[in-house]
Amino acid sequence: MFASAFRIRIRWASISLLALAAAAQTNATDLLAKLSSAAIERTHHPVRYVSDYVRIAYPGGDVPADTGVCTDEVIRSYRVLGIDLQREVHEDMVRNFNAYPHGHQRSPDANIDHRRVPNLMVFFARHGTTLPRTIDPRAYSPGDIVAWNLGGGVTHIGIVVSQRGRSGNYMVVHNIGRGPQMEDVLFDWKIIGHYRYFGPQS
Question: Over the range 42-63, which residues count as b (16 or more CB within 10 Å of their CB) and which as e?
């Protein structure tokens, strides 16, 4: 009798763990779908490409809404989901400054650190999932973050979204100088980073 009761408890525990895993997977999928939608919505906002250093509030700070660079589109899309990359990147840099490519910078700077592509790449690698950098389009899903090398030491970043282009590949929302655009450019430049980030872990 005791053995039978024990087996029942084990079975229910297994079922509960499977249910929790399924719920977590559903939540992750929903978050990526919402991030894709938030990125697409960004294409309706007129934004001038302005890369100036700007002092902003913390946390939740942003440069003027009609200005920004490629990283700002990633930041603003995540903010729709309640995820503040300014705070998350800054707090990680405060704790782990030497993990980041800071050059001559002597300390974290919440005004700009989250707006730099190399810093976001390190942050996503540390706190998200690093995925293969491949030219196989099947490896990319809506909500993925992709970073590129444009050449000449210039890096770029954008969000893979749910709409497909003429190539059949998922398109990307990014700002390469003309404001947030949804374009069929996933493989136009050398991919140097591919990530999924679901927000801070509680």
Answer: bbeeebeeeeeeeebeeeebbb
**Class of residue 15 by CB neighbours under 10 A (exposed 0-12, middle 13-18, buried 19+):** exposed
Place of tokens 């770029």: 156
Distance CA(164)–CA(10), nearest Å, equals 45
Question: What is the model's pLDDT at position 103?
Answer: 85
Domain membership of residue 171 (yes or no) is: yes
86 inside domain = yes
Tokens of 135: 């030219």
Residue 8, pLDDT score: 58
Structural domain contains residue 66: yes
Structural domain harbouring 185 = 2-196
pTM: 0.88
Residue 102: the pLDDT is 86
Smallest CA-to-CA distance from 167 within 151, 156, 183, 152 is with 183
Residue 202 placed within a domain: no
Q: What radius of gyration, in Å, describes the C-alpha atoms of the chain?
A: 20
Is the preceding omega at residue 59 within 30 degrees of 0, hence cis? yes
Which stretches does DSSP call E strand in the chain? Answer: 48-49, 67-68, 129-130, 145-151, 154-164, 170-174, 181-183, 190-196
Contacts (Cβ under 8 Å, ≥6 apart) of 135: 187, 191
Q: Count of domains in the chain?
A: 1
